[in-house]
Each structure stands twice: as C-alpha cells, then as structure tokens.
Amino acid sequence: MLYSFLCATLWASTGIFVKFIxxxxxxxxxxxxxxxxxxxxxxxVQSRAKFQFTPLQQRSYSEYALxxxxxxxxxxxxxxxxxxxxxxxxxxxxxxxxxTFLLRxxxxxxxxxxxxxxxxxxxxxxxxxxxxxxxAGEGYxxxxxxVGGVCALSAAIxxxxxxxxxxxSVGKGxxxxxxxxxxxxxxxxxxxxxxxxxxxxxxxxxxxxNISYLLGLGVIATFVPNMLNNLSSMKLNPTLHNxxxxxTPISASIMAWIFxxxxxxxxxxxxMLVTVSGIFLSMRTPVKKPATATEQA
Length: 297
Hints:
By secondary structure, the protein is mainly α. It has helices spanning about 1-10, 15-20, 25-45, 60-85, 85-95, 95-110, 115-130, 140-170, 180-195, 210-235, 240-245, 250-260, 265-280; strands at about 175, 295. Helix 9 (about 180-195) runs antiparallel to helix 10 (about 210-235). The two termini are about 15 Å apart. Strands 1-2 form a two-stranded parallel ribbon. It contains 13 helices and two strands, in the order H-H-H-H-H-H-H-H-E-H-H-H-H-H-E.
C-alpha cells in the first residue's frame, strides 16, 4: 500500500517539472522523459545481483501488451495536460477506479461496499475541489478542453485495465516481471516518438535548466512511480490501488502551492480532507491476496 501512495505522489510531480521546462515542444518533452527513464532503468536492472537476461522469444507477449498500454497512458496523460486545464485533466485521469469497478463487476462480479462508498466520497471531494473554476477565462477553448478530456479519460481507462490485468495474472500464478514491463514501457516510448522529432526543432531549448528538469521528470516522475505502479498492481487490489491514485491531483495541487506559488483557498483544503477520507475508507476493504504469485520485480 505504501508503494501505491508513493506512486501517486511522485506522479503528481509531473506537472511541476513540465511547468519548469521552457521552449521544448510536447513530443520532445515526452521523448526525453521516456529516454531518461529508460536509461536509468537499464542501470537499475544491470545493478540487480540476480538479473538474468531473458531471450526475446521466451518473453510473454502479454508483457509487451501491458508495456504498450502504459506507454500510451503516459502519452495520452501528457497531451491531456497540454490541451485541457490541469485540474480537468487530473480529475478525469483520477476516474480510473470507476473503470476498475466496471471491469471487476462485469468480468468477475466482485465489489465491496467500502470501495464504492470510498470512491464516491473521494470523487465528491475532487468535484468540490475543482468547483467554480473559470477555465474559459484562463484561455482554454471548448474544443481544446474536449480533446484534452478525451485523452485524460483514455489514460484513465488504460491505467485501470493495466492494474486489473496484472492483478488477475498474479492471482492465477502467472509470472509477471515488473522490471521488464517497466523498461519495455519506456523503450517503446522512445522508439514510437522518435519519428515525431524530425518534424520539429529543439534548437535553443537544450539548456542546462531544461536538462535538469528533464532528468527530474524522467527519474522522479516517471521511472520510479512506473516501477511502483507495477509492483502495486501485482500486490494490491486494483480498485484500491486506483482509488489511492485519486490523491494524485491533490498532491499535485499541494506541490504547485509550494513550488509555483499557486495558493489554495479554504474550500480547496476542505475538499482535500474529503478526498483523503474517501481514500482511507476504501482502504478498510477486506482484500484477499492472490493465493500464488510469482514476482520477479
């Protein structure tokens, strides 16, 4: 559970690093994020005493599919913040537990009342937090908000599906290599976004500050939380994991208050308490761990 909270908190730092980067286009920022995180991941894997190279043909195709899902998640989430207001994008991405509910309900017929009640309370807190914001006055067009909203919802669906599939795989005793999925997620991002770099120029934007912020974005806001997300998805109920993830927009707001000077009013503080209360209520759900689980992370 600690992994899940750390994952949500570190993912929340994404907006801070992106705000600090000046002059780079979104494709370059995402590509740099993937590249730095992938290189750091290689160092991490090579330093593991028990690391053994698994031949390509012996790896499960399902792990590549899971990696591609998370690659798409990062791309869609980043673009959602680019087009839509940060608050709107964060709120929609935080709806991942809703889709996890639906997956468990329709596929397995499972749910617990504390999960539902906790989700509802947390969601009310998020709605209360973002209530009354004038996004049109901030220069966002309706079309841009719609595009960003669709990207955010798509990202939420992908994250919910990823957690559900990994949890199910571990529960059935299948081998899930979190480190392999993590590195493939990042490598796919580097490969798939490389062609887009030829269409744009980063001339003049490769500065020391930007490199520092990209390092933070790649390691602190990408590699570490992505690894924690994989580990949490194997060990923690997917609904609970995604409900804990609803704290991400709150953490992001606190960081923005500290690092960007974006102050929060009394209503926002109350909304934070409501959201956290919902999260802790959902944590009181009696969750059965998978009977067998092969973890190689």
